[in-house]
Design goal:
Bound molecules: pyridoxal-5'-phosphate
Largest sheet of chain B: 7 strands, mixed
Strand content of chain A: 15-25%
Helix content of chain A: 40-55%
Shape of chain B: globular
Strand order of the largest sheet of chain B: 4-10-9-8-7-5-6
Helix content of chain B: 25-40%
Number of strands of chain B: 17
Number of domains of chain B: 2
Number of domains of chain A: 1
Structural class of chain A: alpha+beta
Largest interface: B-C, 94 and 93 residues
Structural class of chain B: alpha/beta
Largest sheet of chain A: 4 strands, mixed
Number of strands of chain A: 4
Oligomer: heterotetramer
Chain lengths: 151, 414, 414, 151
């Protein structure tokens, strides 16, 4: 059995992809964005509720995609809910480095550990875009609500 | 096991493998099993050698030169045209226009033949299994000229009902644009019948031969098709070149597509007059070295027993089709009778991309995605499929590797 | 005499000759003297090797594939884009669109940028020394959209008067389309100034860089030019590929040119949405192997001292220019200050084709004809010229061979 | 000195090209045609006067071109004037074979000898079109008066 494959498709990932957290719509979203991965045609829609204090009060996502993109979206929503926008942005920055096999910077050790399940993607350059789709879409949602896509 | 062992009337796929340098490659320590031929085929050294030798000994720009190399290069370029002419069974060499690929060949027809003939409301008939190359140029005519696209559905097994095509052709139809072979389903369309039906109503037919020229023995005169396109890189030839066959009577009446050198008769400040076909449609320096590569690829194919190659590819398809029956989580999409060696399938609980990633780690290159055929994906209600497309150098043993890899993927992913 | 001897900051043309296999060829028993570089340059083995190695070890179709070879090929293709980006000094890699050649690059601008912006009576400014590639696409817009072509004359020495360009730009001008270097005269146009004048009136500028990219060190940002085109085969690279540089702001607002795979975002039966640049303009399988060849050609050039190459080519031009002064029956056409290494001339009592035939028998490959620049021929009142265009591998000794051959031709023909 | 070159540019050819016979216009032409060689941009216009008995009573040509095309036109006009259309066609057929180095068929020995001065062209495949331009144009003029060109 191929270790890098096992590392990529570890149980946490498969679990997230099969039972995605925060899957669905938010009727009272303050920010939304759509993401699209032209490589595989995968799509994701992000719904956010940012409260007056700049905290992500609620999150949901919809979309179809591969295990990596679904797991990544699920993990992200799970981790971001309840954080401030600034915290979310720091985490997102760290993640985008991590999946490319780059230095993720000084993340909180707990966050680091949770994100680490996605680190295996860095050995699969063709799949990095799958992992980052949800995160780029989240960024768009936070910024402007415009359509994001992984290039 | 040498390239020279192809002397029997049969065909030895294992022997031909030696002609393709890339096939001896390992991927993550596993032998490469290249099943992405539908996207692009690998190239035999005969093609690579021909291009290199030409570049190193006879290269120059073509036409208009008086010197020795210019003559040599022009002769080679025009000889390549005749090679394509014979390969397609065209009556005249000036019916072959070199293009940058299959896509440009179709666009040339859209821009130069059809656009000036379209009135708002005029119809273009096409099937739901067309490649985007045979869809988007017609969408342009919808967006820009008011054309209407009339879609012909296919049967559940992927086959095309000739009556459905016929029914779609009306007095407003200006062109039937149909693939010869579907790049996703492998379906071979009844091209000669489609042409007969269309011509009975006075409508010309363009056939997208990107896959058809690879798997079928094409005779454009027997088919009586008006336009036929091919692309070299799927035909074991180079990138950067394709060809359009067009009947003389059509090409003669078409306005130019790109403007530039070689396609003019005379240019002044005030007016320009155009050269006759095929030059009229070959503006600028053409893909000269690539034309030599395309001719070498055709020569290579002609050196094989093509009927035996076809039988071999069909055997691989049948073998693989049988092999995947063991997986009750796998649904084959496209089972039309007489189809070409392309096997697309959907896998329950596994996304095509994840599957392709696992297969890749086993050395098996398949394609996952919409295969530039989104309307077809929609027709079957899938976002994507996994596709194994077999070429002349593939073997049953390779199919076995894929079957094992599929079983492994199931274990990892579900 | 080996390829490795290029370590000094200077440049040794004789050493580089070993890199070009074709240069050791004999023509009718005479060493080949290849002075037809303006039409197309020969290719170093570094380019031929790169293409062959890539084809034999990393080839696959690009984009959308998940498997190993698809990733490799995509990486190489996109790396080639960055190589071109750096070569032209573009700010962003998505400002580089791969085309089939220089001609298609200009046509892309005509079809996708200008055509939808032209109202009858709108003007396009161009010079009388343009190549047909930078004339005919605009004639199409005249024929089809009612555009008016405004021709800027040149001075008797072939130089361009910036005031004449400025005067031609009016409130109706939609584009200035001008060559960077004339393929007949060698004239280098004052591109940065032209751009400045045009921009002052809000008019964008397209520069035809088919020759400019070969002989000048191009920096599109410093030039501030809106569009710049190049073609690989003149740049010691392969046929079948070229590139368009376009400013992001322009490319983003342009409609697609060819329709097909890779250039879409989504295709349904009813609508189609398009990908962002550069993909939007690269329909179908692109010239993948050729992109590797183009990058290898640029790498090859970058490995030389380009300023020294330029000086060398200039030396050849000066030497040849001096050399032909001995022939009182020969008139050089084009003597603009700072011109590139292209020498065109007319010969009294000898037709260019006859002359070229005699030169050919001496191994000297020159071009005879109108050089796809008929309005320029008309400007100088000639039907054709003979053109010697020098490349980096040419030598003074070769110029001597040509000069002797010219004298011989005189004896035979007059 | 290169023999094939001398053979191509022999004195007769150079003389014809410098002093072309029948150069000019025919005001009372019954047939005319224009020819164009896209290779070099050379052009030729043929003027014929065919009389009631089907004889070429007069001929003239205009145009610019290389020594080969001019000489060929001059030689042709010189040889065709006074012949019947049928005779002209036979000669033209023979010539078109001759310049490609092919068997010219059973030409009249005198004709054959006169045409032979052009035979050197066959060693210069790039120049065959120059030699045939006038002849193709003549053919067009005889047939229909349409524009001819060498392909
Ligand atoms: C059926 C079909 N048509 C058209 C094309 C387009 O050919 P190309 O990408 O070479 O232009 C392809 C391949 O991509 C194809 O499979
Ligand atoms: C100045 C100029 N522009 C455009 C072109 C066209 O380039 P290509 O023939 O490669 O398309 C050429 C060369 O033929 C040229 O010299």
């Amino acid at each position: 059995m191929d270790d890098t494959l096992r590392e990529l498709y570890q149980d946490v990932i498969l679990d997230h992809s099969k039972h995605p957290r925060h899957f669905g719509k938010l009727v009272d979203a303050t920010n939304t964005a759509q993401g699209h991965n032209p490589l595989c045609g995968d799509r994701v829609t992000m719904y956010l509720k940012v409260d007056a204090s700049g905290r992500i009060a609620d999150i949901a996502f919809e979309g179809k995609g591969c295990a990596i993109s679904q797991a990544s979206a699920s993990l992200m929503t799970d981790m971001l809910v309840g954080r401030t926008v600034a915290e979310a942005e720091k985490l997102m920055g760290g993640f985008l480095h991590l999946v490319k096999g780059e230095d993720a910077g000084d993340l909180d050790p707990d966050d680091r550990e949770r994100l680490d399940v996605m680190a295996g993607v860095s050995a699969f350059p063709m799949r990095v875009k799958c992992a980052t789709l949800a995160w780029h879409t989240m960024k768009s949602a936070l910024e402007s609500g415009e359509t994001a896509k992984t290039e | 096991m040498t390239a020279q062992s192809k002397i029997s009337t049969a065909f030895d796929p294992v022997a031909t493998r030696a002609d393709f340098p890339i096939l001896s490659k390992s991927i993550y320590g596993k032998p490469l099993v290249y099943f992405d031929n539908g996207a692009s085929a690998q190239k035999p050294r005969q093609v690579l050698d021909a291009m290199r030798d030409f570049s190193a000994t006879e290269y120059s720009n073509v036409h208009r030169g008086v010197h020795y190399l210019s003559g040599k290069a022009t002769d080679r370029y025009e000889a390549s045209r005749r090679t394509v002419q014979k390969f397609l069974g065209a009556a005249h060499e000036d019916e072959i226009v070199f293009t940058k690929g299959g896509t440009e060949a179709i666009n040339l027809v859209a821009y130069s033949y059809l656009a000036p003939r379209i009135q708002p409301g005029d119809e273009i008939v096409l099937s739901v299994m067309e490649h985007h190359s045979n869809i988007v140029p017609w969408h342009f005519l919808r967006e820009r000229n008011g054309a209407v696209l009339k879609w012909v559905d296919i049967r559940e097994d992927g086959s095309l009902d000739i009556e459905a095509v016929d029914a779609a052709i009306t007095a407003k139809t200006k062109l039937v644009a149909i693939t010869h072979i579907s790049n996703v389903l492998g379906t071979v369309t009844p091209l000669a019948e489609i042409v007969a039906r269309a011509h009975a109503k006075g409508v010309p037919v363009l056939a997208d031969g990107a896959q058809g020229a690879v798997h079928e023995l094409v005779d454009v005169q027997a088919l009586d098709v008006d336009f036929y396109t091919l692309t070299a890189h799927k035909l074991y030839g180079p990138t950067g070149i394709g060809a359009l066959y067009g009947k003389r009577k059509h090409l003669k009446g078409m306005r130019p597509f790109n403007g530039g050198g070689e396609m003019i008769r005379e240019v002044t400040r005030d007016v320009v007059t155009y050269a006759d076909p095929p030059a009229r449609f070959e503006a600028g320096t053409p893909p000269i070295i690539e034309s030599v590569g395309l001719a070498a690829a055709i020569d290579y194919l002609n050196g094989l027993d093509r009927a035996a190659v076809r039988a071999h590819e069909h055997d691989l398809l049948t073998y693989a089709r049988e092999g995947v029956r063991q997986f009750n989580w796998l649904r084959v999409i496209g089972d039309a009778p007489g189809k070409a060696s392309i096997l697309s399938f959907e896998t329950e609980g596994m996304h095509a991309h994840d599957l392709a990633t696992v297969l890749d780690r086993e050395g098996v290159a398949v394609r996952a995605g919409h295969h530039c055929a989104q309307p077809l994906m929609e027709r079957f209600g899938v976002a994507s499929t996994t596709r194994a497309s077999f070429g002349l150098y593939n073997t049953r043993a390779e199919v076995d590797v894929m079957l094992e890899a599929l079983a492994k993927a199931r274990k990892i992913l579900v």
